[in-house]
Specification:
One of its GO terms (molecular function) is xenobiotic transmembrane transporter activity. The chain has 403 residues and is an all-alpha fold. It folds into 2 domains: 1-184, Growth Hormone, Chain: A (Up-down Bundle), CATH 1.20.1250.20; 199-397, MFS general substrate transporter like domains (Growth Hormone, Chain: A, Up-down Bundle). The chain is built from 18 helices and no strands. Helix 4 (43-55) packs parallel to helix 7 (93-121), helix 4 runs antiparallel to helix 16 and helix 11 runs parallel beside helix 16. The protein starts with a helix and ends with a helix. 49% of the residues are buried.
Length: 403
């Protein structure tokens, strides 16, 4: 199987998470009306999905190593499909929250399987290129998701969106079974003792530099997710924008991230990844300070939106550089480090975004202040990071040999 074919199939799998995260954002007002709850309460269904999507990776990763990629990925798709069908039938907020939690677990099993499959098939430059191709889907899927949601609302009610998600998961299961797993060389499962898995996580947790990068990404992702969770409130309720304009403004964030991601590849030819990361975090914080000032002064949406787009757009250069730095110190424990990174960022962001839904009833200012506070924490971590991660790795290795 060619890299392009593999990237398309794995990219389609990765797209499941952003679709379940963003496709129903335009339906927040309709869901609130149907369930008889406040608009901001619907944001809890997003927060609980994100938290489950992160924490369940800690379980899905070891299961994938022990029992194989196919069984974990297919199980995740099955759980995701059943949960999506039940969400569509929910008649109250508590039921929807429960099924969204289960849907997040299924999505986590799918998400954690994709990098594992990549690591099984290639490494080094080839793996980086493959991750790059897959990453493009991560920008396309969330950009298209709100528009897909608007289209589904035009032909049915909010439950139609979840029926579509269930259908997409079934389609994925079929095409992956026929086109991927029958043609792809598979890696034999490794029956690693449970004690070793716990010890490996302990090694990462005790590594202060790696945990600095993990915390940095979790805080930056939290700032972005506060916006995503409350995007419908900001644009559709606070500024009373149409579904179409909301989708266009949301897509602009993804275009900004993709553009900075592409520009980042050029910058990496001339600068260290940690240096680009530090500047990106600084610029994101400045953009959020401007956003706070605009919200405080009661600025119109056409001034607020560009500030949001710029702040969110810097995730396009923050995430790839931070991932490279976080994984640099554990070449033989990349899966464990990646699982801990994903679990931390999604669980922390899920909690912070859930808290943000309690702030969005009367004013826009508390939301953007919370985003700026998250960014300030990330800035403190970025400023204290090693100037050159590769040199720091060599120094720690030398200390290990001398001891």
């Amino acid at each position: 199987m060619s890299q392009l074919q593999l990237a398309i199939l794995l990219g389609m799998t990765v797209a499941l998470g952003p679709l379940a995260l963003d496709a129903y954002l335009p339906a927040f007002p309709e869901i609130a009306l149907a369930l008889g709850v406040e608009h901001n309460d619907v944001g809890l269904t997003l927060s609980i999905y994100v938290a489950a999507l992160g924490l369940a990776q800690l379980v899905g990763g070891p299961l994938s190593d022990r029992y194989g990629r196919q069984i974990v990925l297919m199980s995740g798709l099955l759980v995701f499909t059943l949960a999506a069908l039940m969400v569509a039938q929910s008649g109250n907020l508590n039921d929807m929250l429960m099924w969204r939690l289960l849907q997040g677990i299924g999505g986590a099993f799918c998400a954690v399987s994709v990098p594992a499959i990549v690591r099984d098939q290639c490494h080094g430059v080839a793996a980086a290129r493959l991750f790059g191709l897959i990453g493009l889907v991560m920008f396309i899927a969330p950009a298209a998701a709100p528009s897909i949601g608007v289209l589904m609302l035009a032909v049915g009610d909010w439950s139609t969106i979840y029926l579509l998600l269930a259908g997409y998961a079934v389609f994925l299961a079929i095409i992956l079974r026929v086109s991927l797993f029958k043609r792809l060389p598979t890696k034999a499962p490794v029956h690693t003792p449970l004690s070793t898995l716990v010890t490996n996580y302990g090694l990462v947790l005790r590594h202060t530099v790696t945990m600095r990068f993990i915390g940095l990404q979790a805080l930056c992702f939290s700032a972005m997710l506060v916006f995503v969770t409350n995007a419908s409130f900001i644009y559709q309720e606070w500024f009373a924008l149409s579904n179409t304009l909301f989708s266009a403004l949301f897509a602009a964030n993804i275009v900004a991230m993709a553009s900075l991601n592409i520009f980042n590849r050029y910058l990496l030819r001339h600068f260290e990844a940690v240096s680009i990361l530090r500047v990106s975090v600084i610029l994101q914080f400045i953009a959020l300070l401007v956003l706070v000032a605009l919200a405080w002064s009661g600025a119109p949406y056409w001034l607020i939106a560009p500030s949001i787009v710029l702040a969110v757009g810097f995730m396009g250069s923050i995430v790839p550089n931070n991932m490279a730095n976080a994984l640099e110190f554990f070449p033989h424990l990349g899966g464990t480090t990646a699982a801990l990174l994903g679990a931390t960022q999604f669980s922390m962001a899920g909690g912070i975004s859930a808290f943000s839904t309690t702030l969005s009833t009367h004013s826009l200012l508390p939301l953007v202040l919370l985003m700026a506070i998250c960014s300030l924490g990330a800035l403190c971590l970025a400023l204290g990071a090693p100037r050159a991660v590769r040199k720091e790795t060599a120094r720690l290795n030398e200390l290990g040999r001398s001891s």
